[in-house]
Amino acid sequence: MSALKPLKKAVLPVAGLGTRFLPATKALAKEMLPVVDKPLIQYAIEEARAAGIEQFCLITGRGKTSIVEHFDLAFELERTLEERGKKAELEGLRAMAMEPGSLVTVRQQVPMGLGHAIWCARSFVGDDPFAILLPDDLMLCDTPAMKQLADAYHETGGNVVAIEEVPRDKVNRYGVLDVAEDKGRLVSVKGLVEKPPVEKAPSNLTIIGRYVLMPEVISHLARMERGAGGEVQLTDGMASLIGTQPFHGLRYEGRRFDCGDKAGFLEAQIAFAMTRPDMAPAVREFLQRYR
Ligand code: UTP
């Protein structure tokens, strides 16, 4: 396929209230909760970078300033680490440094829903395709999930969303695909519905927090139509694109942890600690005490 615009931009909405994680999220941004030793937002930025993304837009709200601080240069800290000879820690900090001007923030004053959050990024998006990463969906994949999506975008063009199968009785928590053709790894989509009642769900293929979207979605979101839960739903905006542009779901390879949920967050801690040679033996040992 020729003349596909390269995927260089990502929007990361972090303006949600995180009510499922109260009281932890009363004064602390949910996206700053660490899994092992890294905050959720850093995993998402690193995943985007691994997919070739170069420009980042955080949709923030009240109480989220620590996220921006996290990606700033910590000059005094770096100097102290240098003086103390803490090389590994210093390298870790330097590796996460952002290119000047590559991270912008936009304020969503009122959390009116994910679709509204994405619409707030309209100036950043302009006429370009863009990725969306929801940092509370934490991905454990051999090939980073966003890289899998970016590769699929280069194959199909148009919109591509990461999908997974869920048990039928849980479809009412997600955006659900109405399938035109199931080709295995890729699924072409003829409709989308947000949080359908279980008996009305068109499939059990659901959208997770990774997307590659075309800029035209913004004009659909601009109508500010309220959908499920009275919120401006991204799923409804995406559904309006179907028929005018290619729209595919990608069965990504790997695992997702819903870190906006307490049990999902705890499982992520264990799963990520198990990938670390410096931690896995100790974790495996203490877990035996909880059977
Ligand atoms: P969630 O559905 O997890 O909502 O949002 P939430 O408010 O963060 O958490 P709970 O359900 O109250 O516990 C999915 C993603 O969309 C962002 C959130 O920050 C999260 O990354 N979001 C949601 C916004 O940025 N603005 C909104 O108005 C809604």
Descriptive notes:
- By secondary structure, the chain is of the alpha/beta class.
- The chain has a single domain, classed as Spore Coat Polysaccharide Biosynthesis Protein SpsA, Chain A.
- 31% of the residues lie in helices and 24% in strands.
- It has 11 helices and 13 strands.
- It has a 9-stranded mixed β-sheet.
- A hairpin with a 3-residue loop joins strand 9 and strand 10.
- The longest helix has 13 residues, at 262-274.
- The mean pLDDT is 95.
- Uridine 5'-triphosphate (UTP) is lined by residues 13-21, 30, 59, 108, 111-114, 116-117, 134-136, 260.
TL;DR of this structure?
By secondary structure, the protein is α/β, with parallel strands linked by helices. Helix content is 31%, strand content 24%. The chain has a nine-stranded mixed sheet. Strands 2-3 form a two-stranded antiparallel sheet. It has a two-stranded antiparallel sheet with strand order 7-13.
Topology:
Blueprint: E1 9-13, E2 34-35, E3 38-39, H1 40-50, E4 55-60, H2 65-70, H3 75-83, H4 87-95, E5 103-107, H5 114-119, H6 122-125, E6 130-133, E7 137-140, H7 145-156, E8 159-165, E9 175-182, E10 186-194, E11 205-213, H8 217-221, H9 234-239, E12 247-251, E13 255-258, H10 262-274, H11 280-287
Parallel strand pairs: 1-4, 1-6, 4-5, 8-12
Antiparallel strand pairs: 2-3, 6-11, 7-13, 8-11, 9-10, 10-12
The structure holds uridine 5'-triphosphate.
Name the structural class: alpha/beta
Q: From the 3D structure, determine the CATH topology.
A: Spore Coat Polysaccharide Biosynthesis Protein SpsA, Chain A
Question: Structurally, how many domains make up the residues?
Answer: 1
CATH first level: which class? Alpha Beta
Major beta sheet, strand line-up? 5-4-1-6-11-8-12-10-9
* Number of H/I helices: 11
Radius of gyration over alpha carbons? 19 Å
Sketch the topology as an H/E string, one letter per element.
EEEHEHHHEHHEEHEEEEHHEEHH
The rough form would be described as: globular
Helix content: 25-40%
**Annotated CATH architecture:** Alpha-Beta Complex
Residues in β-strands, percent: 15-25%
Give the ligands present.
Answer: uridine 5'-triphosphate
Q: Residue-averaged pLDDT, rounded? A: 95
The main pleated sheet reads as: 9 strands, mixed
In whole angstroms, how far apart are the ends? 53 Å
DSSP strand count? 13
CATH superfamily: Spore Coat Polysaccharide Biosynthesis Protein SpsA, Chain A
Report the uncertain regions: none
